[in-house]
Structure formats: C-alpha cells, structure tokens
Amino acid sequence: MAHDVFISYSSHDKPIADAVCANLESKRIRCWIAPRDVLPGTAYGEALSEALRASRVLVLIWSAQSNESKHVMREVESAVDKGIPIVPFRIADVQPSRSLDFFLKAIHWLDAITPPLEKHLHTLADTVQLLLERQQQHQGEDKNSIILKLPTNERATHDYSSQRTAKLWLRLIALVVTLSILLAGTYLVWKVVVTRDSGYALPNPRTDHTSNSDPTPSRTNPSTTGRTSGTETTSTSTNAKIPMAPVRPTDLSFQRFDSVPGRFRVEFPGFPKQETEDWGSGVKGTVFIVRLEENYSFQVGYGDFTAFKPKVVDRLQSLKNIRASYRPGGEFLDEKELTLGDEKIPVLEYKVGGNGSFDRERILSARDHLYLITVRTPGDKQFVVSKEVDRFFDSFDLINP
After folding, report:
1. Is residue 150 assigned to a domain?
2. What is the CATH number of the domain that holds 323?
3. Which residue of 65, 90, 180, 243 sits 20 to 30 Å from the alpha carbon of 161, by its own alpha carbon?
4. How many Å apart are CA 362 and CA 368, to the nearest integer?
5. Residue ranges of the chain with pLDDT lower than 70?
C-alpha cells in the first residue's frame, strides 16, 4: 500500500500510536504502522526497511519506553540516513537518550504532555500536512528544471578545457601576487633611502602627537592657544582611546521557519533554538532565537495575551500598556498593520537602547497571542535599521488556522 507517513513507536505506546494513525488517515494522510501493514510471510525487518524507504515523513511517538527502544533507535537512524524528515511527538516529560539526542538535537518536537490529546493530534496532522505540501512543491520545481547533458566525448573535452583554464588563472594570480610583493619591497627601500638622505625621520606612532586614526590637523583658536591663566604653554593633542565598534555580522543567509504551535512564519539567519522567557504577570513566553557573534541576535516570541489582563478594549492601547509594563522607554518608530484574512492587526515598532545594547522590536497581538519580534545588538544603531533587519521584520507573517 502506498503511504506518506511511517509511525515509529514502542509497543507500550500502541494505543496512542493507533490514535495518531487514525487521526492522520482521517485527514487523508496515508500511514504505515506495524504490525497492521506488515505483509504476512514477509520478514519483519525487511518490511520495516521497505516501508521506511517509501515514506516521506517519520512520526516518532516519543516516550520513556521509546527513548530506550533499540528498534525505535534503528528506525530513527535509518530515516536520518535516507533524509526523511522526523516529527517527534512527545507524550511524556523525558529528555532524549544519548543515542536519540545525536539525531534529534537539531529538530523541533511537538509536546503532547498536557491533556486533551485530541488538540495535540490536530496540531500533529497540520504539521505533517505542511511538510508533505512543502516536499510536493520542491518536487514540482525539480521537474520544471532544465539539465544540459553533453555527449561523453564533448564532456571530456569540456572538462579538459576547464582544467587548462583553471591552471592558467592560477599562474596569472601567482604572477600578480609576486609583482605586487616586488613593487611593495622596492617602494619601502626607496622610502628608507630618500628619508635617510633628506635628514628627516619617519613618524613614530608611539611618540607622534597626531593621532593615527585622524590624520587631519586639529584646529585651535589663535586667541587662546598657549595661554592658561596668563602662563605661556605649548598646545599638544593627546591620543584618546576610541572605543572599538562591534564586528557587525555580514553575508547573512536567511531561511524560512514555520512554527505550527505559534502559527507564524519568518525568515531567520540560521536555525533557531527554542527557549522560555519570563515576560512578567505570570506569562511564560516561548522564544525562537538565533544568536550570532558579538551579542547580535534575531528572535520571535509568543505568549498568552489574555494573561496580561488588558484593562481596555482597544487592542492598540492594550499593546502600549503591555509594553510599558515589561519594558518601559524606547523611541517609538512606527505603527503598522498586518493583514490576516479580513482582519487588520495593529503592530507597534520601537528602538530601545541602554546597558551597552541597542535593539529594535515589534509587538502585536492576534488569536489571544502576544508576539514579540526583536533584533538585539551590542549598541549598533546602524545595524538595527539595515536591510537585513528590515528583511527579518518584513518576513514575519501569521499562518491561517
């Protein structure tokens, strides 16, 4: 039987595995589950291997029992080897064993610990459906691509010509580098000889009064230069220490990230890590964050909007009150709108500085969720308004339920 999903589970969790299978198949997502789909007379290991090879997604029923199951471990390892996406469905509060952690540490799992189970089953079905649709889109793009294949003899000639061209380029680069070194050495020798014959000494950066960072001579008021309280003095400039600017991240590569539980999508400059933050008023925010070097970070968080207990009906004023309660201050930048179906959702944007940092953030609420989109920097005021940060903010969107 043709199928899309392979369900991996421990025999102790068979009731939940059957419920997952029934829910997925009710959404017309074809599943393979043992022992139901093992053909009589077929070796069990062979049937599992063939079923995995034909699958497009593996759903792992993750519990304390499957965490230690060698059969489950082999199925997960085989899926990783074949490049099959894995969706861990965690039904118990356990951390991955050492063996599973090797394969699951970079994968976002779905929690199904808190009842009711039906709610988590629907979230799992939506996630699997999204993965299958994305694979189908990629397959369509591959079919429409054009591949030019040369005949064998022409391909060999082309490869040989490419090798000769590469060698010529390498020789040319080596020649240019050698000439540059010779010219630089000749110039230095000439500079030393001319300086020695003219009687002038080369400037010493340790004793020179003019800062190397600013070659422009300082301008002084002739009426006040050299006089302090009626005493003649000589005006000198000091080498003040200039704070080093942070090394700004460059060549950022953005990739799309979909959060099914948070019902949003955004383009991150890397794969985000999930964390939990205390937002005050008893609210725990779920935060997806990509940390870069030099304390730069991109993050999107969401939490329960109703937990803040807004005292006004107007959503825009509620957002302003909530932000003032958890992070007062900052420069208000803009008020935008995000369209979700027929609904216009207000969005507030701020720039915030202090304690050696300078951040840019957006705040909005939708579907009883509060969303915070933030870029944090080590005091880099130019980066928060750069095109990379604009792309990150503009890529944020809500997924229709």
Report:
1. no
2. 3.40.1000.10
3. 180
4. 17
5. 1, 140-162, 193-246, 281, 307-313, 325-329, 340-341, 401
